[in-house]
Design goal:
The structure is a homodimer.
Chain A: H1 12-23, E1 31-32, H2 35-38, E2 55-57, H3 62-75, E3 79-82, E4 99-102, E5 109-113, E6 118-121, H4 127-134, E7 139-140, H5 153-159, H6 166-169, H7 172-175, E8 176-182, E9 188-192, H8 203-207, E10 216-223, E11 225-226, E12 230-238, H9 241-253, E13 260-265, H10 266-276, E14 286-294, H11 296-312, E15 317-320, H12 324-335, H13 337-344, E16 347-350, E17 353-354, H14 360-374, E18 377-383, E19 388-395, H15 402-419, H16 435-441, H17 444-457, H18 472-478, H19 486-497
Parallel strand pairs in A: 2-4, 3-4
Antiparallel strand pairs in A: 1-2, 5-6, 6-10, 7-11, 8-9, 8-10, 12-14, 12-15, 13-14, 13-18, 16-19, 17-19, 18-19
Helix pairs in contact in A: 9-14, 10-12, 10-13, 14-15, 16-18, 17-19, 18-19
């Protein structure tokens, strides 16, 4: 998380010209340009970095999105697309000389097709609103990021959002069938289809998770999943974190795919228990939550198999939710881990890395050693089944040097993930936060391929510039890379792609 | 399937220069240039189109692939990558002024990781050989194209190959975790990872199914699936094709995902029965094969549910395989439908389109009407569960005009698929065969996006030129397109992207 480079200043005259041009294509209530109005858009969930945009466009329909993008193309104005602004890696952080394009006003559910089990929605529809609209058909939208009450499908697509139930039901990528989007040139393009396979290059997959750099979503068709008639969760305590991590591998090796498989360490459990009263075993070194859903007889059978595996793996205590209220209570602590961190520490920094499941114990031990080294507490909550870690680094920004130490600690955790054969983000994206870590994860040729594809969609590099993909110059300065060659090779390539 | 444009002639002098250059980077036994030696490479499974390449390179390792691509880059020689040559859309058809790069000599299984359930293999490893190598761990590689005994994983990746079991286990896309490939510039790039999620743009998905236009695979890591302990198949007869098609929808609506769900019409059943003696009901208008696999108790329960649904849907006869030998016998007809066509017709043309499952009955009725119109027989065998049709058009090329009629009939079937909300290829790819149908499926902006991404990987357009993605000029001439605008708009864009 290095501070983004200083934005070049923009003259008042140019700002006026841009706003005047946008006024010709948007109704007055769809354009914000006073500092008072644009202030709420200065950052997303990564609040350490803030920047006022020169204006905020809030188009109400696809035609207006096209018109805004064409106007920006003409005037060479950068555009930062924004969903609900709940992202955690600064993907929606504005640039000073550019506008924010918010899809908040495009919040209509276009159609629910219960027979085909699909919903077609505008980008500003909230994640949870899709499930609410489909509830009468006993269907729901499966990916469930913690922010699902607020975050929107447009932002979910940009970040390839995950959630607690993604182990069984997949990420956003696996639940979006079709996207209609507008390119930087103002062209409308449909990617994917509701047919079982699509001809042509699979541009839908490359678009999902592209962090607003390839186009602006104007409509999406998502898969709906039948609501399971029953869900129960097993809560198991372990007196050793490594044993808990091994139990995760044991559950999966036994051939089960739990609807959720989450882990919290003692620091996390003690952090949330006073806050939510979930009934967590605060003496345990680690707590596992392992959920089964489906038909009642399937769930009963799977729960007893899960129980047996967890006992064999050395669980010191096991509880199974008896009803829906208790199931929600068991989950409440996991789902409220982030807000709870604010109660025991002035500040916290939530990391997001992914590792092969079998490396869980090894990486957790490594994080513990790093906590010692950086002299900071770290609470571990994570999607254990996916190998997706969310270490919460606790610090106090008022203590000189603590923020910088937290940043270094975070970067070291990501290096640990890369070294374990994992990746630097599971579901929060790269944004402005992890540009340097990208240089560590990928070779110069791989980053050059990302840049080339970005340019194929957006030759003038106006859409969300300087996010998600580092320039090769930056990597050359950072000086680390996956294979050999390092600084020199990045610098050499930077002449072509930088 | 229009004949590709005439290749420009190549001088003997240039041919000698190219072969001489390739000799400096390949051992003698890895380069074929005499007509006798290159003849076997003049076509793939789409034998109607043939073209001798100027040479065939058979590199034995990644370094040689890099060297061949760099040599071709220097001399501006087009490269057509080739797996086993079993493709059905002409994707591996050579170009006169270019070389074929066959991965046949790179056929080593690099590693089987039974714990992580992955296999890492070179591109020339045969599909079935992966399962054979993993068999001792009770694992197998799930996608099973009909050609699986011969086709290779490199070709499967190029075509995003499917198969009978893809309804439950997914296409190649869903079973390949990581690809190592060489770009047209000779850069080695890794796409995807064995970690649960990958940072950066999802270039693996765009690469899979890109028909050899973005790079040459040198290694792939694929997912292995635990072998089910039992598989049984229900064979159901219907006295009406539409009723059979509706039964497919009924099975899926009942919440089951069969391991295979295939349909044959009467023409197909009568065609294969004398050939394989599978015990098919040749009086039935349609036969459904519906498979269940998993643990014995799960299979028994699912088979009885399948039986109940099929009876309710109007099956006139039902048989369930009693043992593995009978299961293989029930499948033998489906798997041998293509060779069997050769016994009742001098020639056949296998189409490949995909439609939403609920449109099956409607499209089948439409195909019947087209058969009348074009006065040709058509046997329908297909992956019904996926909505992936494989109409076999039977004709006699020795009868004047029949081949052309078969082509028109095939094109009309694809138009029917597009109109039903489907796509022009399920698993055979576009190749040279369906370039015109691409113009019908996609808008000018969508094809421009494909072209831009192709150029991002291969600016000089040397890798498999004129395959899979039509030029906008071609579409302008073809004159049909998905939305409005037609010929003029394609022609207008062609100036930029053509």
């Amino acid at each position: 998380m290095n501070a983004p480079s200083q934005e070049p200043p923009i003259t008042a005259e140019r700002q006026r010209a841009i706003v005047a041009e946008l006024r010709t294509v948007l109704p007055p209530h769809c354009l914000l340009s006073s500092e008072e109005d644009t202030r709420p858009y200065e950052c997303d969930g990564l609040t350490a970095f803030r920047q006022l945009p020169l204006a905020v466009a809030l188009p109400e329909n696809e035609e207006q999105v096209v018109a805004v993008l064409k106007a920006c193309r003409k005037l060479q104005v950068p555009i930062v697309p924004r969903g609900a602004g709940t992202g955690l890696s600064g993907g929606a952080m504005p640039v000073a000389e550019g506008i924010v394009l918010s899809t908040a006003k495009m919040s209509r559910i276009v159609a629910i097709d219960a027979h085909a089990r699909t919903a077609t929605v505008q980008p500003g529809v909230r994640n949870l609103a899709i499930s609410e609209a489909a509830a009468s058909h006993q269907l729901y939208y499966a990916p469930d990021p913690s922010s699902q009450i607020a975050c929107t499908i447009g932002g979910n697509i940009a970040e390839n959002a995950g959630g607690v139930h993604c182990l069984k039901y997949g990420l956003t990528l696996h639940n979006v069938l079709r996207v209609r989007m507008v390119t930087a040139d103002g062209d409308v393009v449909e990617l994917g289809s509701t047919a079982p396979d699509a001809a042509g290059l699979d541009l839908l997959a490359v678009f999902i998770g592209s962090e607003g750099m390839l186009g602006v979503v104007t409509e999406a068709t998502v898969k709906l999943t039948p609501k399971p008639s029953l869900a129960r969760v097993v809560m198991a305590s372990f007196d050793d974190v490594v044993r808990g991590a091994d139990a995760v591998a044991d559950v999966i090796s036994a051939g089960m795919i739990p609807a959720g498989l989450e882990m919290m360490d003692r620091t996390s459990a003690r952090m949330v228990e006073p806050f939510v009263c979930a009934g967590y075993d605060t003496d345990a070194a680690a707590i596992l939550l392992c959920e089964s859903d489906g038909l009642p007889e399937e769930v009963e059978e799977e729960i007893s198999r899960m129980r047996a595996v967890l006992e064999r793996s050395g669980a010191t205590a096991i509880a199974v939710s008896r009803d829906e209220a208790e199931r929600m209570r068991f989950w409440s602590g996991r789902k409220n881990a982030f807000p709870a961190a604010g109660r025991i520490s002035p500040d916290y920094y939530c990391m997001d890395g992914t590792i092969p499941r079998r490396k869980l114990a090894e990486v957790l031990t490594g994080i513990e050693a790093l906590a010692q080294q950086y002299q900071l507490r770290c609470a571990n909550v994570f999607h254990a089944g996916d190998g997706n870690l969310h270490p919460l680094i606790l610090f106090d920004a008022n203590q000189p040097g603590e923020f910088e130490r937290a940043e270094k600690f975070g970067e070291a955790i990501l290096s640990l993930c890369v070294a374990a054969g994992g990746t630097i983000t599971g579901e929060h994206g790269v944004g402005v936060e992890k540009l340097d870590s990208m240089c560590e994860q990928f070779t110069v040729e791989e980053i050059a391929a990302f840049i080339a594809v970005k340019r194929a969609f957006d030759p003038a590099q106006q859409l969300n510039p300087n996010k998600a993909i580092p320039t090769l110059d930056r990597c050359a300065q950072y000086g680390k890379r996956k294979v050999d060659g390092g600084r020199f090779r990045f610098a050499q390539y930077a002449r072509h792609y930088g």
